[in-house]
């Protein structure tokens, strides 16, 4: 019977999975394993439980009778699965699909009716044979249970800045990552999705302070584990934003994200839920590229402006006319047809499918939750795919009234496949080809699909070649398994419980990359011959690589929890020990060039490179928390952590990090309750917190194990003579080098975090909100003393020290209105976060004069505004301010300020006018000033350019009416900066395509071939490439403040009437449409760029616009 149950649950899911491309092979290989895992868990649940909805017999001193009843909501709709229990006993049952129940009870018994989202009701049985019970929705948010550090608390008794989001809001997304599901939904969260590549995540930060700590079901995990959870397996997420995060110590300097996965409910019959959707994806935005005629026109215009036309104006005009008409003569080979690379090689309907199935329920002493899901996402390019399969199982059992056990198993299988291309970003070549390939070239020589065309200046970028068949295959597979056990024991001491958690986590990443060669041709029409113009194999540009990384982690917690009431005094406490041990091992084998591209095996030869790494790390911590509240009015929480880190030498590994939080619930005071405002002011709480934390993530100045002495091996290689008397270098020698002076001068960064806030509620908490002001100060940021010098020949440098400081200041807030009018339920919410970082003291700054100090000093300045721009770093915001445009040559000739250092000889009408700040009549470095809010991104170094907007906000709308539900999530970012570079400033060239907006709408001569014809104004300066005065230097004309508001999610659903679906055994059937990124109002709209992209020339993979149809069914 049990096997039948598992098959009934699994087989329909597998059938749907198998219809999904690439999943058939997966399930053929793993079906037995999958069934075994689910069967084992289901068997365990069945073995220890007493049934999904049974009534346990108890000793009865009074005469029993049978009572029946029905439970409904305010709309007289039956409620399914309501827990009906005899108060003070374990006897109970649950309501059926019609809301009915039946139970043997005594007349004096009190029945307790409880249901998630509704207020609990108690009813005395008496002599009534039938009970009609109405449950009302619970709008008392102050009784909501919130997960905090190493425990839970009621929201009303929390003194810290904690924000929580529930399962319905989290799951309202088509994002493949959890971070993407949170965008715009939580106050205090700042986000930016810099790439829309399948499987890519969103940069999520708490108050712009950096990557937070992630804790999943009480176990500390990394961002990848968090992002790759299935959103439908998450019950809630809590965000610790202030000093309360100090209980997590060294890793919590940037805040903490606490994730709780779903569990079943006691006395809940087995319920199966299926969710399936199918999506069509396209890019949210894409700049209009030049067609063939426009590309030739812009190039001729630029060359005429520079005086470098290679043909006569008459020939150029004739050529332009042919390109305009698309002239083509197959007899002579004259071909002036354009080719749109994007239309032909970028899909506007890339598929994505998702399925999730779960089984949940419980008996009198057990709960269980089992799920399996799969997402299969294609990119807009051919042969690019991301897949992930998740398995989650949570099981709990009450062994006795004093002992509880829990077991969790979760895992994921993740696969990324794509063409094997050069570089670490396999999307880069395809992405750049779409933007760069000139529209006058076609993918195949002579349109013969057997011969790839060689595009001049773009060898290896022909999009027709960038497929698995031509380029080879990159296969990236990740397998993750986590097993958790926990035990909770209620001690004989009232209110004192002990809890232990053990967790084993392992991850294995295997990358198999075979980068093959291909040939590109030109066609000789006279000889009717295809000539090889590019041969990747012959150029020794082939690679074969194997990466194998395995991580094993074992962690444990031992905690004592105390929770007791003494009259009106509520006292809580937590104390315990936590440890983690991690083993890391990686092996990398490469062969370049590849000996045999037809055999996917690496052979032994001199071209091989083998690299192996291994590291064993561990942490240990003592945690403490004490809480007190008096009548839920005066609240005090104290916490501390004594943390040990492997990153520091002995004697300097431990740090103590305390915090304190306090709150006053004014609305609970008698003077407030008796006042006139209490009729509409339902909640008012003032909060304040202060915490001290450490951070051992010290960056590149303090690499792992820097405190150890020794040698670095391997440190390069060289060929040397086998015989010292011979000049023939035949022996390969591996080199090593001293690591340098051991770094023992550095320790933790020290963080102080202050927060004050207010929680409020109006009109029976239909209107609720929070507002927080915060300030974080970091001291001990690593720096290198500039006044300590070593002789160059030693190869040594000054040791880093804890020298510098900074602070982050800002506020976050949210407000939400929940109400019901007749059959219409609706909610409107908004949140906003502002956070900006400012440098503190920067030690060792030495300047030769006052200007250098003004220009380069970083102390006590807003961060990200001190980087250099005129030395090749687009990450800075110091540049020249544009105050106008030159309209005529006469204006240029008479202008008193030398704009170009050549008495304005290179300046043309339409060029920008730069402000002469110091009034010396010359534009130079002394006229630069900050012109932006935050640093723009430099494409080659994202580590220095991970800049989220200074302001993030969200608007959330929800409506429900007679089975119809509508929800919309808006997300916005403000006060970021985009600094254009390269082809955005210089325009089109003969080797790459260009954007329409900055190549056509330009200042130009009426006759582009006649420099004496009148100038026609345009939005952008005249095209002159890198010789352009306006584009040669960084200035505010090419700098754009980035502000945007996008419709992140729109969901419209309809739940079929229950009296229809119950006839076919369903409890719920909801059909829905979902749109993601449907539109965006952006200050980069005229550029055609997604406002969250990272590169300075716009050539990134933008986010996807997604249209989804789905169905959710519950049995």
Automatic annotation (TrEMBL):
Superkingdom field:
Bacteria
What UniProt keywords apply to this chain's record, in alphabetical order?
Cell outer membrane, Membrane, Receptor, Signal, Transmembrane, Transmembrane beta strand, Transport
One GO term describing the cellular component: cell outer membrane
**Is the Membrane keyword given for this protein?**
yes
| Membrane-related topology note | Multi-pass membrane protein
Output one GO MF annotation: siderophore uptake transmembrane transporter activity
Q: Name one Pfam family in it.
A: Plug
Give the Gene3D superfamilies listed for this entry. Carboxypeptidase-like, regulatory domain, TonB-dependent receptor, plug domain
Which segments constitute the TonB-dependent receptor plug domain?
157-256
Q: Which NCBIfam families match?
A: OMP_RagA_SusC, SusC_RagA_signa
UniProt similarity note? Belongs to the TonB-dependent receptor family.
Q: Mind telling me what this protein is named?
A: TonB-dependent receptor
């Amino acid at each position: 019977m049990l096997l039948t149950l598992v098959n009934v649950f699994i087989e329909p899911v597998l059938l749907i999975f198998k219809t999904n491309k690439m999943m058939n092979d997966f399930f053929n290989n793993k079906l037995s394993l999958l069934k075994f895992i689910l069967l084992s868990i289901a068997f365990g649940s069945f073995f220890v439980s007493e049934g999904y909805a049974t009534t346990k017999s108890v000793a009865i001193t009074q005469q029993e009778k049978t009572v029946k009843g029905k439970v409904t909501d305010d709309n007289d709709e039956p409620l399914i699965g309501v827990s009906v229990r005899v108060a003070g006993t374990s006897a109970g049952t649950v309501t059926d699909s019609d809301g009915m129940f039946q139970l043997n009870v005594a007349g004096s018994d009190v029945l307790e009716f409880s249901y998630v989202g509704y207020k609990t009701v108690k009813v005395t049985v008496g002599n009534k044979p039938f009970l009609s019970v109405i449950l009302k929705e619970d709008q008392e948010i102050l009784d909501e249970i919130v997960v905090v550090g190493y425990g839970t608390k009621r929201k009303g008794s929390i003194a810290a800045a904690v924000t929580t989001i529930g399962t319905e809001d989290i799951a309202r997304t088509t994002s493949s990552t959890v971070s993407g599901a949170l965008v715009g939904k939580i106050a205090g969260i700042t986000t930016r999705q810099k790439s829309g590549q399948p499987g890519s995540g969103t940069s999520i930060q708490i108050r712009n302070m950096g990557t937070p700590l992630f804790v999943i079901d009480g176990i500390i995990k990394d961002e990848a584990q968090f992002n790759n959870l299935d959103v439908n397996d998450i019950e809630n997420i809590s965000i610790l934003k202030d000093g309360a995060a100090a209980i997590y110590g060294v890793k919590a300097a940037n805040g903490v994200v606490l994730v709780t996965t779903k569990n079943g409910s006691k006395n809940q019959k087995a319920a199966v839920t299926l969710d399936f959707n199918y999506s069509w994806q396209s890019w949210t935005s894409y700049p209009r590229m030049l067609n063939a005629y426009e590309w030739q026109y812009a190039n001729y215009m630029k060359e005429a402006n520079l005086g470098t036309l290679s043909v006569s104006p008459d020939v150029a005009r004739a050529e332009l006319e042919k390109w305009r008409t698309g002239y083509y003569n197959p007899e002579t080979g004259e071909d002036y047809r354009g080719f749109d690379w994007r239309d032909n090689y970028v899909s506007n309907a890339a598929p994505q499918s998702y399925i999730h199935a779960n089984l949940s329920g419980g008996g009198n002493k057990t709960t269980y939750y089992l799920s399996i899901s799969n997402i299969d996402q294609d990119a807009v390019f051919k042969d690019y795919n991301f897949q992930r399969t998740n398995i989650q199982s949570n099981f709990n059992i009450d062994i006795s009234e004093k002992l509880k056990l829990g077991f969790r198993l979760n895992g994921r299988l993740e696969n990324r496949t794509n063409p094997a291309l050069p570089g670490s970003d396999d999307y880069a070549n395809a992405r750049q080809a779409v933007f760069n390939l000139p529209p006058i070239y076609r993918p195949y020589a002579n349109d013969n699909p057997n011969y790839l065309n060689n595009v001049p200046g773009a060898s290896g970028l022909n999009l027709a070649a960038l497929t698995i068949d031509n380029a080879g295959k990159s296969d990236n597979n990740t397998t993750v398994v986590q097993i958790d056990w926990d035990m909770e024991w209620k001690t004989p001491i009232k209110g004192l419980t002990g809890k232990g958690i053990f967790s084993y986590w392992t991850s294995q990443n295997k990358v198999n990359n075979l980068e093959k060669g291909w040939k590109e041709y030109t066609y000789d029409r006279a000889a009717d011959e295809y000539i090889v113009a590019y041969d990747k194999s012959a150029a020794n540009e082939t690679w074969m690589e194997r990466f194998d990384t395995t991580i094993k982690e074992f962690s444990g917690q031992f905690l004592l929890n105390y929770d007791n009431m003494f009259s009106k005094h509520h006292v809580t406490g937590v104390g315990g020990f936590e440890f983690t041990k991690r083993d890391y091992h990686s092996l990398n084998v490469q062969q370049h060039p590849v000996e045999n591209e037809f055999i996917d095996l690496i052979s032994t030869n001199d071209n091989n490179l083998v690299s192996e790494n291994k590291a064993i790390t561990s942490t240990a911590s003592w945690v403490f928390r004490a809480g007190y509240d008096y009548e839920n009015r005066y609240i005090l929480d104290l916490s501390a952590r004594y943390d040990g880190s492997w990153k520091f030498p002995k004697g300097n590994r431990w740090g103590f990090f305390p915090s304190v939080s306090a709150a006053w619930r004014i609305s609970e005071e008698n003077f407030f309750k008796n006042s006139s405002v209490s009729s509409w002011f339902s909640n008012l709480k003032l909060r304040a917190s202060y915490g001290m934390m450490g951070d051992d993530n010290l960056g590149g100045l303090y690499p792992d194990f820097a405190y150890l002495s020794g040698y670095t091996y391997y440190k390069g290689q060289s060929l040397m003579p086998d015989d010292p008397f011979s000049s023939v270098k035949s022996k390969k020698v591996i080199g090593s080098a001293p690591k340098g002076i051991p770094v023992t001068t550095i320790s933790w960064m020290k963080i102080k975090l202050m927060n004050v806030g207010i929680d409020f509620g109006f009109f029976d908490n239909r209107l609720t909100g929070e507002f927080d002001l915060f300030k974080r100060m970091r001291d001990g940021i690593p720096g290198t003393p500039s006044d300590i010098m070593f002789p160059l020949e030693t190869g040594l440098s000054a040791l880093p020290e804890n020298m510098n400081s900074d602070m982050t200041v800002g506020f976050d807030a949210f407000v939400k209105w929940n109400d019901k009018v007749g059959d219409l339920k609706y909610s409107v919410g908004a949140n906003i976060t502002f956070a900006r970082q400012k440098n503190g003291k920067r030690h060792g700054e030495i300047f030769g004069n006052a200007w250098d100090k003004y220009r380069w000093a970083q102390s006590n300045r807003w961060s990200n505004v001190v980087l250099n721009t005129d030395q090749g770093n687009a990450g800075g915001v110091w540049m020249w301010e544009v105050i106008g445009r030159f309209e005529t040559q006469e204006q240029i000739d008479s202008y008193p300020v030398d704009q170009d250092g050549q008495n304005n000889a290179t300046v043309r009408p339409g060029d920008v006018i730069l402000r002469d700040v110091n009034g010396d009549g010359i534009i130079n470095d002394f006229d630069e000033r900050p012109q932006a809010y935050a640093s723009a991104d430099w494409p080659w170094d994202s580590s220095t350019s991970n800049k989220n907007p200074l302001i993030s906000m969200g608007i959330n709308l929800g409506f429900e009416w007679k089975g119809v539900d509508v929800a919309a999530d808006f997300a916005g970012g403000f006060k970021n900066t985009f600094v254009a570079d390269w082809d955005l400033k210089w325009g089109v060239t003969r080797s790459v395509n260009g954007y329409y907006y900055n190549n056509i709408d330009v200042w130009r001569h009426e006759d582009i071939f006649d420099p004496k014809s009148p100038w026609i104004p345009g939005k952008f300066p005249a095209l002159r490439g890198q010789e352009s005065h306006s584009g040669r230097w960084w200035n505010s004309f090419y700098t754009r403040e980035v502000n945007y508001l996008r419709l992140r999610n729109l969901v419209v659903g309809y739940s079929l009437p229950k009296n229809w679906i119950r006839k076919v055994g369903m409890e719920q059937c909801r059909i829905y449409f979902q749109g993601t990124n449907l539109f965006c109002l952006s200050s980069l709209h005229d550029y055609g760029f997604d406002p969250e992209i990272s590169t300075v020339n716009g050539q990134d993979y933008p986010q996807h616009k997604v249209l989804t149809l789905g169905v959710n069914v519950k049995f």
